[in-house]
């Protein structure tokens, strides 16, 4: 096949592109989709070159970025049937026109979400991924076909062992999650939005010999996973079908499924669900279960009227109505996509696209420039979210110069759900750190140690900071002294591990220290910050927080302050331009993780430690929320941190 493609018609002569090959016809939009239904093609661009497309009807030649004419042919024939209309980024967006690129990128989220389905063409290197998903789809189909057995709580004798099928499903899902980083398709930035926003997905593979195409893989897998999770929550220890986990572990497995196969029609992000509501549903799932799993639409019988619950397979709707508020829809989508984006590390031709790929999904209107660095692109989007949309996004690390209180370059690691390192069921925290201000202790401790000492330079208007008058920075401890580090950490630690639901988090802190090199540990120090109460009658009565920063930091210049962006307490120091932030204060709780310390304009710190609960093991001593109310003195003089 020569590297030239013949078209039946094109944008110039018919307003749409049409490709035909041996009776197989595909139409391609010129611009944004104008009619429905349509499909979107998701693929890896690879090493592209200008590929000429010649129109038979008018003779005009157009070039598009494409690996080869063979790749173009495979894309055109990846749809389920001939005659379908598709949107293809390499052609539907005029890649030679910067104005069309800038116009369509913010609309791509709607382009993908409004499509009937997305046809994924996996590259040749991802054969193992295709085979795994093919098998996962087969198992899901078996589970869905036998859905009545879940509703009856009775496995039919004879035939394939349903319990084993369920267990194999979750095992394959875990294998898929752990292998994502190896596969090209899941390494690319732009393929993420195509996968995440698709209402459903069909899959094919560029190779010539494989099992066959997969249809409806997203819905099939999600329905099977939801069926099993709801079944386990409702029947608990009385479940006769052994799906491979306890009731307490089921929400964690289900959240992994939601992150791997995100679907805004089916699920509500956890940040949008009150934590106590989710915990109630987890404990009382015989009454209701929707919030425990983040399901958008569920059905239960009215117990007051002695109504029976509907069958398990009819108790949820994975194609539910979306919120009517555009603002709420945008916020939910943003939280969902950022949570899923962190399942693996992504790559892009341009650094700016590592931001644009998810910002465009959420229709965030900002000045996109493909030549921006990642830091500049992130700064643009964060400014729009905070100033124009009023979104509160917490920073956890200081890694920029000139915008030290404004941008955290590792924010994507905090916008994805964290597993609690010392939870015996390895569950995820409710909500994501960037929106809740709570992170996993081991993850944050490791990030604080391993982040680069070199700060990225940015320009900003700065963030106001106010000095905390009744705080004290205690003597630093180099992290290569494990014993002294653990002693310092323990001063800022609340709660006692119960060993049933939670182990001692200091064991996880020790594990982080043992994993890192001596040079890394020598380059960082931990410092305990004492925040005196008001009035501070007893010098020992204080709230203690911890920070980790570079060992060469001049502590004599440092002071405790409240930054005005989110109200978090920080360590700051003078700089050439004025002031800059050094680190964010955090407090760790055995049961509820590591929290940023937030104070209001009067200096009041009001923190609530909510203990995660599980449906199969409940320690009544840990159910109550623990609240800390403290006060720090804020001086009137305002500084600006850059």
Number of helices: 22
**Could you give a short account of the major beta sheet?**
6 strands, mixed
User: How many beta strands in the DSSP annotation?
Assistant: 26
Strand arrangement across the biggest beta sheet: 2-3-7-4-8-9
Can you put this structure into words, describing what you see?
With 642 residues, this protein is of the alpha/beta class. Helices cover 32% and strands 20% of the residues. Strands 2-3-7-4-8-9 form a 6-stranded mixed sheet, sandwiched between helices. A 5-stranded antiparallel sheet has the order 21-20-19-13-26, with no helix packed on it. Strands 11-23-22-16 form a 4-stranded mixed sheet. Helix 6 runs antiparallel to helix 8, helix 10 packs antiparallel against helix 11 and helix 15 runs parallel beside helix 16. About 1% of the residues have low confidence.
Topology:
Layout lengths: L4 E3 L3 H4 L1 E6 L2 E6 L9 E5 L5 E7 L5 E6 L2 H8 L8 E3 L1 H4 L5 H7 L3 H6 L3 E6 L4 H19 L1 H6 L9 H18 L10 H8 L3 E5 L11 H19 L14 H11 L14 H9 L6 H4 L32 H16 L11 H7 L14 H15 L11 E2 L9 H4 L18 H4 L1 E2 L1 H10 L5 E2 L5 E6 L2 E3 L3 E2 L3 H10 L1 E2 L10 H11 L2 H5 L1 E9 L9 E9 L8 E5 L5 E6 L4 E6 L1 E4 L3 E4 L7 E6 L16 E6 L2 E8 L1
Parallel strand pairs: 1-5, 3-7, 4-7, 4-8, 8-9, 10-12, 16-22
Antiparallel strand pairs: 2-3, 5-6, 11-23, 13-19, 13-26, 14-17, 15-17, 17-18, 19-20, 20-21, 22-23, 24-25
Helix pairs in contact: 6-8, 6-10, 8-11, 9-15, 10-11, 15-16, 19-21, 20-21
